[in-house]
Amino acid sequence: MFRSCTSLAGALIALGLIGNSTGMAAGIDPYKVEAMTSPAPNQSWIPNQPLPALTRPDKAPTVPAQFKGPLSLADLTDLALLMNPRTRQAWLSARAEAAAVGIENADDWPTITGLYSHRIGRLISATTGNPVPVQSFYGPSVSLSYTLFDFGQGAAASDAANFRLLAANLTQNRTLQEVATQVEQAYYRVLAFDYLVRASRDSLKNFETALDATQRRRTSGLATAGDEYRAETQVGQAKLALARNEGELAKARGILANVVGLPVDHPLELKPVVELPPV
To answer: Which terminal CB of the chain, N or C, has fewer other CB atoms within 10 Å?
Structure first.
């Protein structure tokens, strides 16, 4: 009975020590990783040192020579498929999966392993303590291994790699289609805002002409001050619409350059649309 109580007390003491050591270990933070985040979920993270500066690449993407000058929609599509990082990423992913297929199929080949070892040593006698002359040991070896039967594991791994390659190839095709669609949408958006800017400029000229005529009529006594104020309001609204459309045009050009794979401030020159679409 005394031994049983002693064992039980020892077990409780051991559990207490384990619990205390776990609590102490939880409070040890030698790398101060908790200080690398915000102290609470409702507080924002404040860096303890200046953030690294983001520098622009020294070298801009090089546009091929055949894409210099005014570009049509077909030229922009070809340039985007060539320079857009998404197309290159999808292509490299497909090539990686193709290499994985080769790795899986490589298990069907025999494996030859060659080993050559050269060791020089001097032994000392355990009884007399006299050294033995230097001895050289050579150990060339060659092994050949070939898997005859793996219960279908190799075939299953090869099929899985082939299906991953199929998915990667289909993903690449979908990426090409998505990039071409984005180029088309951005191209026609640029054309739309370009025509809106032209129309806004013509509208501003008309309102300025109307304002000048209203001012002349008021000088002659044929118009009132309200007529002149209304004409000035129309001129101001036309200027606002022109500024808004010019901003949207610059934004559309940046989106088009980004889709093509160039910096947003790259000056893309588009070919004018000669033929109007059928109505």
So the answer is: C
